[in-house]
Specification:
single chain, 222 residues, mainly beta, 6-stranded mixed β-sheet, 5-stranded antiparallel β-sheet, globular
């Protein structure tokens, strides 16, 4: 990674941390309206959303913030984890990957693992204490209601782009899935990046930072 890219990445990381630190704790609500009828809110479909991936790159870490905006005239809700797959590159290495890249078979992909928290983004707890293994296993992602035309939600994709030894596969676009329907988006980096390890996706949360703080209960403690 060049000195210029490293300085740029550090500045981006500092801005991202400042935004995340300002997130206000919320409580998780039910998947119903507040009206007397308590009718359920429909799940958001990919066709109802404007989906983008933007760069949140940091030093030796790759981060993409995947953002969803409800573009319909109806409220809808999202919950859980995206299904994200990296489309791995095959053939000759792009110029920026010489010495860092090994080719993958045509059509190869790598699926991201679901994690509650990652290097950038995810669900934090108001205690500031890292959740125990039991609490993470029992974690249920929050329900995010998106108002018509204005509602925004987001998630982060995290990976390490520097190998300990040898070379890594690489990618320059991702497939983003909800309920079995996918769209393909290029990385916000604007170029291909090595995908070495820790390829993780965090829960869908409210807003556009990819991070959310939830009020803790006794069961969330280590």
């Amino acid at each position: 990674m060049s000195k210029i890219r490293a300085l740029r990445s550090l500045a981006l990381l500092t801005s991202f941390v400042a935004i995340v630190g300002a997130v206000t704790p919320i409580s998780v609500g039910p998947l119903v309206t507040s009206s007397a009828s308590a009718s359920t809110i429909s799940r958001c479909q990919i066709s109802s959303l404007e989906i983008s991936a933007t760069n949140g790159d940091g030093l030796h870490h790759g981060v993409e913030i995947v953002t969803f905006k409800n573009v319909t005239n109806h409220v809808c809700a999202l919950r859980g984890y995206l299904e994200i797959k990296a489309n791995l590159l095959s053939g000759k290495a792009p110029k920026n990957l010489v010495g860092m890249y090994h080719s993958s078979q045509p059509g190869s992909h790598l699926a991201a693992a679901d994690v509650e928290m990652a290097w950038a983004g995810g669900v934090n707890w108001s205690t500031g204490i890292y959740p125990s293994a039991a609490a993470q296993k029992a974690f249920v992602p929050p329900i995010i209601s998106l108002p018509a035309k204005t509602g925004t939600a987001s998630s982060t994709l995290n990976w390490v782009d520097g190998p300990n030894t040898g070379t890594c596969p690489a990618f320059e676009e991702i497939r983003i899935g909800l309920a079995g329907t996918f769209v393909t988006r290029p990385l916000g980096l604007g170029f291909a990046d090595p995908l070495c390890y820790e390829f993780d996706v965090t829960p869908i949360v409210r807003g556009s930072t990819g991070a959310m703080t939830l009020k803790s209960t006794a069961k969330d403690q280590p």
